[in-house]
Amino acid sequence: MWPSGRTDLKLRVLWATLFLILSKIVLLTIPYFFKWSTDALAAGQSAGDGPAAFALAVLALVAAYNIARIVQAGFNQLRDTLFASVGQYAVRQLSLRTFRHLHQLSLRFHLERRTGGLTRVIERGTKGIETIVRFVILNTLPTIFEFALTAAILGWTYGPAYLAMAILTIVAYIWFTIRASDWRIDIRRSMNASDAEANAKAIDSLLNFETVKYFGNEEMEARRFDQSMTAYEKSATRVWTSQGLLNFGQVVIFSLGMTAMMMMSALAVRDGAQTVGDFVFINVLLMQLSAPLAVVGFIYSEVRQGLANIEQMFDMLDTSPEITDAPGARDLAVSAAAVSFRDVHFAYDPQRPILRGISFDIPAGRTVAVVGPSGAGKSTLSRLLYRFYDVQQGAITIDGQDLRDVTQKSLRAAIGMVPQDTVLFN
């Protein structure tokens, strides 16, 4: 959120922070205009002021109330607009880092992972970053700031009893929200797992459309897909049901706290300690607080889910490439381009060796054909030559240079490959 080397984005962060603070300050002035308008109405009616002066005072307060609402909304929009490019820049940088890292991982990693599941992890990870930026930076931190100001106003203006009741209500509300959301997160994880499995099955089936047709297994593929979607349906239904219970509990807690404070204010108005405007002020202040409180559960759940999604992507980023350049590796120097395999041993699975002591030379300018049954290791030779894998014993050299001692980039730049199957992008 503090982009290195991007002064323009840093300035946007500072301006967005300023507008954030201003919007919350203006928001908390709105109940005051409501209070003063109410007191003016009550005082004007009881004191019998002139109609012109009375109307002017009330209209001025009403206008100020609505202007404050407009200004507060404007500050919010300026904050969101300024911060949007900062958040999207962070998402873009992380997406690019993940994409590059995936291309640096070994062939084994990609062959052992479902493409559909892998793309889902990347998609969810980038969405998770957007969620964190949107909810934590633009919602959670401003809401905490608003909570603190509201509690301070109640305590300073109306005494410690109101402060204690406000804090008790907020703490109970947040405690219930967190406990209920933690319960719901397991349901969300189950739903996401079913979603990823269904997506992976769909992509695998469609990528192998021709094979499915060869064996006439369209119905079997549909059943496999439906099994995952059935599990997703059940989990998604539980998610919506649990959300309803969470929302109801939140309404009950906030309503009880608000009722207690409104009753305290009503008694104070009866005793002459407060005005009707104070009663209205407390009501409006609490109602304003209910809006950000209402989405606390949603924000907490989304942030937790976003963190879980980011965790999956970060686990992938923490995966070390199986094949790396040796320290001090130099570029491949090609002269005659003679290739030699010397006592090469290799196995994808240690229990099933593919190559056992293979040795041969390919002189410069010669054409060599490797013939053998399926699974004999023909494709393995080209994968080893490209250094998609390292030999477990022996060595492969080009012009006497061990492939493990040169950079992968220079090695692959020196070799031309004509694949048997034509691969088209897009």
What does this structure look like?
The chain is built from eleven helices and four strands; from the N terminus they run αααααααααββαββα. The chain is mainly α and 426 residues long. It has two domains: 7-317, ABC transporter transmembrane region fold, CATH 1.20.1560.10; 339-413, Rossmann fold (3-Layer(aba) Sandwich). The radius of gyration is 33 Å and the shape is elongated. The chain starts with 6 loop residues before the first helix and ends in a 13-residue tail after the last helix. The mean pLDDT is 83.
User: Which regions contain 5 or more consecutive residues with pLDDT less than 50?
Assistant: none
Strand order of the largest sheet: 2-1-3-4
CATH class of the largest domain: Mainly Alpha
Assign an overall shape. Answer: elongated
What is the H/E string? HHHHHHHHHEEHEEH
Number of domains: 2
CATH topology of the largest domain: ABC transporter transmembrane region fold
Distance between the termini: 34 Å
Q: What value does the average pLDDT take?
A: 83
Number of helices: 11
Assigned CATH architecture of the largest domain = Up-down Bundle
Produce a short descriptive summary.
This protein has 426 residues and is mainly α.
Secondary-structure blueprint:
Elements: H1 7-47, H2 51-104, H3 107-112, H4 115-158, H5 160-207, H6 209-215, H7 218-270, H8 276-294, H9 296-317, E1 339-346, E2 355-362, H10 378-385, E3 393-398, E4 401-402, H11 408-413
Antiparallel strand pairs: 1-2, 1-3, 3-4
Helix pairs in contact: 1-2, 1-4, 1-8, 2-4, 4-5, 4-8, 4-9, 5-7, 5-9, 7-8
